[in-house]
């Protein structure tokens, strides 16, 4: 019996040894690395596997349908617009602070948009890197302070983004100051192709100097406030008979004050806001440059220019700058998590001592008033169904007989938007 027991134990030990040796020869499975949640910067971030970088992927899909009384028979009354947008926000915590890179891709489809042809495009709307207070890339101008919640867009609203290199210093308690150099061409307003009456709108030459922009900002529990300013070079390249007329450069500027106050009544996000801007030789900073709903370079048939080439009285030519101001205000009221509403009012006035024609449209003085009100219904999280009513009035101050055939315009706009 002892002999049988010894044989059995020996056999088991031998089999175990052989099995262990064979298992040692097998390749080991790679360890599984699961995607980990990163909550350092809020919801939606996750660690890119194998790195200490947190990434958030988000976006939106939007459809707009708009009806507006046309200013001219050639303009569309009914406009369709579709938008797709993707954002990638990557952040890494370093010894010198957060290293951030951000990319926003946007594609639009707009039928006519009050222009001559239908159009669709897909482009880089924003792409920048932030580190140690520096921002480099394409992003919102440091001049801007955007509070407007209307669909139509009023003055000083976001129209586009610009390439810049800037630095922001933070001082605590919500205070900061920023300085940047920005792409001049993004703010150029030129009525090219004009027939001169008293002077021709500037035809911009190549960039020699960027726009210089600075701001001071405070953001605290009560709301936020920003002062900003910009310097803009008017460098002319107007030619007569193939030769440059020799107009000297002029430097324009713009200043703006904007702020919002949070209100205790209503839900989170309820606030009143206002902004006021003045510009001379840099009217692109007024927010009167065409929105996607208005033909490029015109406002209901009125073109604009930062400056005009005029005779200087000494046998040469100089630049006469345009000036203007814009004031916008409004509010957002959050009734509950399902309903909210926005009201926007805006008025702008641009004046030029020179009047020209671009394809029969005046370049020079005009004023414009905008009012818009909307209601937004959010039946489920991240889905917005909105309806907006708006009114615009444009006054042509250049001629006894206005070029614009209808200076008042009413409209309504519906929006469906899903964020993710």
Automatic annotation (TrEMBL):
Protein name (Swiss-Prot/TrEMBL): Porin
SUPFAM superfamilies named in the record: Porins
Gene Ontology MF: a single term: porin activity
Description of its domains: Consists of 16-stranded beta-barrel sheets, with large surface-exposed loops, that form a transmembrane pore at the center of each barrel. The pore is partially ocluded by a peptide loop that folds into the pore lumen.
Subcellular location, record wording: Cell outer membrane
Family affiliation: Belongs to the alphaproteobacteria porin family.
Pfam family membership, one: Porin_2
Organism lineage: Bacteria, Pseudomonadati, Pseudomonadota, Alphaproteobacteria, Rhodobacterales
Source organism of this protein record: Agaricicola taiwanensis
Purpose of the protein: Forms passive diffusion pores that allow small molecular weight hydrophilic materials across the outer membrane.
One GO process term, biological-process aspect: monoatomic ion transport
Keywords from the UniProt entry: Cell outer membrane, Ion transport, Membrane, Porin, Signal, Transmembrane, Transmembrane beta strand, Transport
């Amino acid at each position: 019996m002892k002999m049988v027991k010894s044989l059995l134990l020996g056999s088991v030990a031998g089999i175990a040894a052989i099995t262990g040796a064979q298992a040692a020869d097998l390749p080991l499975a790679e360890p599984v690395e699961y995607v980990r949640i990163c909550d350092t910067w809020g919801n939606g971030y996750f660690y890119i596997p194998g790195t200490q970088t947190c990434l958030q992927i988000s976006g939106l899909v939007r459809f707009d349908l708009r009806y507006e009384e046309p200013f001219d028979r050639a303009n569309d009354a009914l406009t369709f617009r579709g938008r797709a947008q993707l954002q990638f926000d990557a952040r890494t915590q370093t010894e010198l602070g957060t290293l951030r890179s951000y990319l926003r891709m946007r594609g639009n489809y707009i039928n006519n948009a009050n222009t001559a042809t239908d159009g669709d495009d897909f482009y880089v709307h924003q792409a920048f890197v932030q580190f140690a207070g520096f921002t480099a890339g394409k992003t919102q101008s440091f001049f801007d302070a955007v509070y407007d919640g209307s669909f139509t867009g009023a003055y000083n609203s976001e129209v586009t983004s610009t390439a810049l290199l800037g630095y922001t210093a933070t001082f605590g308690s919500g205070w900061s100051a920023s300085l940047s150099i920005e792409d001049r061409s993004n703010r150029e307003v030129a009525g090219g192709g004009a027939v001169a009456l008293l002077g021709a709108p500037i035809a911009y030459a190549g960039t020699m100097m960027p726009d210089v922009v600075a701001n001071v900002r405070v953001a605290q529990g009560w709301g936020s406030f920003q002062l900003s300013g910009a310097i803009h070079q008017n460098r002319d390249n107007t030619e007569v008979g193939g030769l440059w007329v020799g107009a000297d450069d002029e430097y324009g500027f713009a200043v703006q004050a904007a702020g919002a106050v949070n209100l205790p009544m209503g839900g989170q996000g309820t606030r009143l806001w206002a902004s006021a801007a003045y510009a001379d030789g840099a009217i692109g900073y007024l927010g009167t440059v065409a929105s996607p709903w208005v033909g490029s370079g015109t406002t209901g048939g009125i073109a604009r220019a930062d400056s005009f080439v005029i005779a200087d009285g000494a046998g040469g030519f100089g630049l006469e700058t345009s000036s203007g101001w814009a004031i916008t205000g409004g509010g957002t009221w959050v009734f509950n998590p399902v309903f909210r509403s926005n009201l926007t009012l805006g008025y702008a006035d641009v004046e030029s001592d020179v009047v020209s024609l671009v394809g029969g449209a005046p370049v020079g003085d005009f004023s414009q008033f905008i009012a818009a009100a909307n209601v937004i219904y959010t039946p489920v999280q991240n889905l917005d169904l909105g309806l907006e009513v708006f009114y615009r009035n444009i006054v042509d101050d250049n001629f006894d007989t206005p070029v614009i055939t209808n200076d008042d315009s009413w409209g309504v706009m519906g929006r469906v938007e899903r964020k993710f």
